[in-house]
Amino acid sequence: MKLLQILVVGLMVCLTGQASGEDSGKEKRNIVLMVSDDHSPDLGVYGNPVIQTPHLDALAKDGVRFTNAFATTASCSASRSVILTGLQNHRTGQYGHNHDFHRFESWKNLKSLPVLLADAGYRTGHAGKYHVGPRETYDFETWMPRHYRNPTEMAEGVRDFVASEDDRPFFLYFATDDPHRGERLREDGSRAGLEDIDTPDDFGNRAEGALKDVQIEYSPEDVVVPDFLPDTPMTRIELAEYYKAVSRMDNGFGRLIEILKENGQYENTLIIYISDHGIAFPGAKTNAYDAGLRSPLIVKHPDSPKGDVVNDALISWVDITPTILDFAGVDEPTYDLQISLAPIRKQMVDTHAKHGLHGRSFLPVLDQEHPEGWDEIYASHTFHEIQMYYPMRVVRGRKYKLIWNLAHGLTYPAAADLWESPTWQRVYRKGEDAMFGARTIGDYMHRPEFELFDIEQDPNESNNLADDPAYAEILDELKDKIREFQRTTQDPWLLKWTYE
After folding, report:
1. DSSP states along 128-141
2. Is 14 a catalytic residue?
3. Which residues in 51-90 belong to E strands, given as ranges?
4. In the prediction, which pLDDT does 354 show?
5. E strand or H helix that includes residue 328
6. Parallel, antiparallel, or unpaired for β 450-454 and 400-405?
7. φ, ψ for residue 404 (rounded to 5)?
8. pLDDT tens, 247-261?
9. Among 101, 209, 237, 399, which one has the highest count of C-beta atoms within 10 angstroms of its own C-beta?
10. pLDDT value at position 14?
């Protein structure tokens, strides 16, 4: 039977003329995609000298650590739609949050990663945070408990899935709620409000009930304050809570890896660790600045000839689905885009053509340190919460980055939890001239149409070069790149270049 299977697979390859990153004559192997919530590259292996993340550090030592990995949007639901489809969120239709009254959902005709893998013979399992919709677009065969804020217990909940005697390879999507912000609670247990600027967010760090898990305490004096944040006592207190949630998350991933090893699946599994986007602090989350988009990416490939590789390719989350499909030997889907709006049709080329995914597999360059041709990424943000309309389109290379703020006439909107955070409120109340990290409150809230940065010289993105005549040619070149990006990814907001 095994020989017959190999012959059939070989015949299919010959008939289709398709090749993938995997030798199609090999047995299909397992895939684990681990996704945390609002985690910047704050790990020991990424250079943070304080935070304790031994399990993800060890995974990086066994595999590849990417130093230039970016979400396409610093918003949870929108980003997860990108991760699971390989399409920018302006193409998935998941423009913002899926839960409660926000109700953004992806198009029903999309073929998501778990659906494609299930069609190819994988058993698919989901554990943890979901936050996308509709169900038929992002469906899994097996749904396991979320175990809110207890990733170790959540890992124990997937033990039977990993140990199953079902001989199909598995795809496990394991998504923690950590280290997302939690709640701000008064001493009496009631929810804190805007007036409670002395009450920090706990980032889920409560010991009672389902929240009980391994807790590592951090001193506010020891944390590393990133340059985009103000170095204040309250910032340090909230960062210490964030560190604690990161370590709890790491412990859960450690337990999952332990379960894979106990069941003889670790060496036979592609393991990818990412976050949906960067840290949940003002200046990062919901922004198009690097602080919000840059995320960790650690990959352990079963056939990787060496570990502890550091790869500086610019990777985007649209590359995750193509990479996993490549590993699984599964063809990428194409979509028949039909656009009926005449003003858009004039700018879209061949509106009835088949369109593929927006990313590409990075398996061919996985073990390289400085791969060629991976020097540019794009980003697309439109909403976060329903009231937060502020579309941004971004092109970022190794030296220059351009942000187009399509709604620049509006005051920049803040997510509810970030707006209420005492880290923000304690500075915001000092007025628009007060410095919040690398920029003033006024500059943060009132943005120009274009923000051009030399990120080699200005990594904090605080010196806008868009109005400098010396950079006019670079500005025009990057504008053209954004327009082409919008055209090729079927972005409805392409219309904004001419509509107004």
Report:
1. E------TTTS--S
2. no
3. 64-70
4. 59
5. helix 320-328
6. antiparallel
7. -105, 110
8. 999 999 999 999 999
9. 237
10. 37
- Picking from 276, 275, 253, the residue whose alpha carbon sits closest to that of residue 266 is 253
Structure tokens at 394: 């971004």
Question: Which helix (H) or strand (E) segment is 379 a member of?
Answer: strand 377-381
3-class DSSP assignment, residue 452:
strand
Structure tokens given for 106: 């992806």
Terminal Cα-to-Cα distance of the chain (whole angstroms): 64
Q: Quick one: pLDDT at residue 213?
A: 65
Region for 457 from its dihedrals, namely left if φ exceeds 0, alpha if ψ lies in -120 to 50, beta otherwise = alpha
pLDDT at 208: 59
Those residues of the chain that have pLDDT short of 70 are: 1-26, 207-214, 337-354
**Cα distances (angstroms) measured from residue 72 to each of 42, 316, 346, 377:** 19, 6, 26, 8
DSSP assigned state of 412: P
- Calpha distance 176→162 (Å, rounded): 18
Q: Give the distance from CA 328 to its chain's centroid.
A: 21
Per-residue pLDDT reduced to its tens digit, 294-314 = 999 999 999 987 889 999 999
Is the distance from CB of 20 to CB of 30 less than 8 angstroms?
A: no
Domain with residues 28-184+195-369, CATH architecture: 3-Layer(aba) Sandwich (3.40)
CB neighbour list of residue 433: distance below 8 Å, 6 or more residues apart: 440, 441, 442
**Pair 363, 323: CB distance under 8 Å:** yes
Q: Is residue 80 helix, strand or coil? A: helix
- Distances from the Cα of 122 to the Cαs of 21, 95, 170, 349, in angstroms? 17, 29, 5, 36
- Listed by start position, the domains of the chain span 28-184+195-369
Q: How many angstroms separate the CA atoms of 174 and 427, rounded?
A: 37
User: Which amino acid appears at position 325 of this protein?
Assistant: L
CB neighbourhood size of 44 (10 A) = 17
Q: Note the pLDDT of residue 339.
A: 47
- Residue entry with tokens 């352990």: 300
For residue 28, what pLDDT is reported?
Answer: 83
R_g (Cα) of the chain, nearest Å: 22
pTM: 0.92
Q: What is the pLDDT of residue 394?
A: 98
Catalytic annotation, pick one of 59, 60, 76, 465: 76
